[in-house]
């Protein structure tokens, strides 16, 4: 005797709000861009400041890093979101309303990288040499705590772990590049 499974009634699934998802993706790109700008530029300028007290050298490295990082983040975000759009379109057809905009995500990432990166760059360039690195560390800790808190709240999770991860990761990056800068400065 063969038994046939009885049909199962599945609960109705919530309708996926693609417009909300698009806005959330834009915010995610912005927070990630700001965080990356803060850490990348802080690590770069702290490393250069450890090697040399030359403000022009620090400014050139910081400015080049700011432009390169912002363009890299925007390009990566554009490629990532474009791939996501392609997958959404192939899964749901061409008439999917409110697909995530790759250009919006790329723009958010670029602008937020620059804004985030300006924090350590401006601090390191406007602080006298003896306090340059400690002041940059302090400003970066505050900025990373803020981006960690915002990202956690946007994701609906507790801010504490996100803040700790951000601050520890950024602090480690600055400590390592500071050490490299000291070694290079001694060798030159």
Automatic annotation (TrEMBL):
The chain crosses the membrane at residues 29-51, 57-81, 102-123, 135-155, 167-187. The keyword Membrane applies. It is found in: Endomembrane system. GO terms for molecular function: manganese ion transmembrane transporter activity. One of its GO terms (cellular component) is endomembrane system. One of its GO terms (biological process) is intracellular manganese ion homeostasis. Keywords: Membrane, Transmembrane, Transmembrane helix. Pfam families: VIT1. Coiled coil: none annotated. The keyword Translocase does not apply. It is a multi-pass membrane protein. Its main location: membrane. This is VIT family protein.
């Amino acid at each position: 005797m063969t038994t046939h499974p009885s049909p199962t009634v599945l609960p109705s699934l919530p309708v996926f709000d693609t417009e909300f998802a698009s806005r959330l993706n834009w915010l995610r790109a912005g927070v990630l861009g700001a965080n990356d700008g803060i850490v990348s530029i802080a690590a770069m300028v702290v490393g250069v400041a450890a090697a040399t007290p030359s403000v022009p050298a620090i400014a050139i490295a910081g400015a080049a890093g700011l432009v390169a990082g912002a363009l890299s983040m925007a390009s990566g975000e554009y490629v990532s979101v474009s791939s996501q759009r392609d997958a959404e379109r192939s899964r749901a057809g061409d008439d999917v309303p409110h697909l995530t905009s790759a250009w919006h995500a790329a723009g958010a990432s670029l602008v937020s990288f620059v804004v985030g990166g300006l924090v350590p760059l401006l601090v390191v360039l406007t602080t006298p040499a003896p306090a340059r690195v400690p002041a940059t560390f302090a400003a970066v800790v505050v900025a990373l705590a803020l981006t960690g808190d915002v990202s956690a709240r946007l994701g609906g999770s507790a801010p504490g772990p996100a803040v700790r991860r951000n601050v520890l990761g950024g602090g480690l990056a600055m400590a390592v590049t500071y050490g490299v800068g000291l070694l290079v400065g001694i060798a030159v």
